[in-house]
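Progress note, sequence design subtask.
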């Protein structure tokens, strides 16, 4: 596989191959006469089948059971039909349908997630931005609707969507995140500004398992863009973390003490880190002695890959066997089996690893001053360098909290 290194931009890696299905395996390079859907490069299942005039047959990664076996606390793997949502998101590949397998080698500065390209690439939220960086498109949520004055946002989730351990993902997981994680001072001492609207709390209603209603105290149309871009995911696995929350389990502290923790909140802290910064820390990193005895190494995820090993030297992830996306041939995504990321704090060593072709992808912390040496060694290291200044995002930030009215 030819490697990709990216300066000031983004890239997507895929493996080539083919798969048999009832529907035409369309790609962005060859849509085979199938019209685009309501959103760029993706369809809802019923929309794709109606547009393409077909019935999509699904196929899974033949290594899914093996990969599932590496996820601490996961049970035996059920059939693919039981793992996919009833309404999976159909994603159109760029150039060709992928094949399963392989390990994607990555590089970050440290365990802190902000320097990790690969944790960012697999990140999901209720919605996301499409490649045009202008269009918000469905992701975990199937659809959404605003009221006329942008004070009520109703989101519809995917029926049958599951966490990476197979437990149902429902609207209660969104409400649990908002009411019982970000606003519990035992977990986060002071709520972040982004969970407030005009300085006040929203309310979250869950009329049914697939419907979430955000009631805002003032208009905030930017809330949707927030969900599309922010590092904090607006859902948490209530079925798992709720076991250690005293609001939901009166025996939370006793259960925690059996595991060697002072309280249920201490267990949540070990998994969640008293922070909304996703993936920091995992219990394997924060308390490696306790990790093997815990019910799970990390809390369940909805992302494409889940961490199965982590230390100060690096992290290992495997494909989520319950991921909610498929390609146009019906193959459950992701294609890549595993991710292996090492942590290197010295910039010179990171550049050396890139030049030696030891990594498959790097963007963050790779700056333009490194471009000459990277460009000179492309052939030797068997990689390409993509310079993408057209999507750089310079920002001017103003202090809007100053008491000086002239400022």
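Output:
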């Amino acid at each position: 596989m030819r490697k990709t290194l990216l300066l000031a931009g983004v890239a997507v890696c895929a493996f080539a191959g083919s798969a048999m299905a009832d529907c035409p395996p369309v790609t962005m390079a060859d849509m085979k006469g199938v019209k685009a859907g309501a959103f760029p490069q993706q369809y809802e299942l019923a929309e794709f089948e109606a547009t393409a005039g077909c019935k999509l047959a699904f196929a899974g990664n033949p290594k899914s059971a093996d990969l599932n076996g590496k996820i601490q606390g996961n049970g035996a793997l059920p059939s693919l039909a039981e793992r996919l949502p009833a309404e999976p998101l159909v994603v159109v590949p760029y150039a060709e349908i992928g094949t399963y397998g392989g390990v994607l080698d990555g590089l970050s500065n440290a365990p802190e997630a902000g320097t990790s390209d690969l944790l960012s690439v697999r990140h999901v939220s209720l919605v996301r931005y499409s490649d045009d960086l202008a269009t918000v498109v469905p992701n975990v949520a199937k659809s959404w609707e605003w009221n006329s004055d942008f004070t009520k946002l109703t989101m519809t989730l995917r029926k049958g969507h599951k966490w990476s351990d197979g437990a149902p993902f429902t609207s209660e997981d969104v409400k649990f995140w908002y009411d019982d994680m970000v606003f519990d001072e035992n977990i986060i001492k002071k709520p972040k500004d982004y969970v407030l609207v005009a300085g006040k709390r929203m309310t979250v209603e869950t009329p049914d398992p697939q419907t979430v209603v955000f009631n805002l105290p003032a208009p905030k149309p930017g809330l949707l863009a927030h969900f599309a871009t922010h590092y904090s995911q607006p859902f948490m696995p209530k079925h798992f973390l709720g076991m250690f929350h005293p609001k939901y389990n009166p025996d939370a502290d006793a259960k925690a003490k059996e595991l060697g923790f002072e309280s249920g909140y201490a267990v949540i802290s070990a998994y969640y880190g008293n922070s909304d910064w996703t993936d920091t820390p995992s219990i394997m990193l924060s308390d490696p002695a306790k990790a093997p005895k815990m019910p799970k190494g990390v809390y369940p995820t909805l992302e494409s890959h889940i961490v199965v090993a982590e230390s100060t030297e690096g992290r290992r992830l495997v494909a989520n066997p319950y991921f909610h996306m498929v390609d146009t041939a019906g193959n459950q995504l992701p294609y890549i089996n595993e991710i292996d990321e090492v942590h290197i704090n010295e910039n010179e060593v990171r550049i050396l690893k890139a030049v030696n072709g030891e990594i498959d992808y790097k963007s963050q912390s790779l700056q333009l001053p490194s471009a000459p040496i990277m460009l000179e060694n492309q052939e030797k290291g068997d990689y390409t360098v993509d310079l993408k200044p057209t999507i750089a995002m310079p920002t001017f930030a103003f202090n809007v909290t100053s008491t000086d009215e002239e400022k």
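The two ends are 53 Å apart (CA to CA). Work on this subtask will continue into the next period as scheduled.
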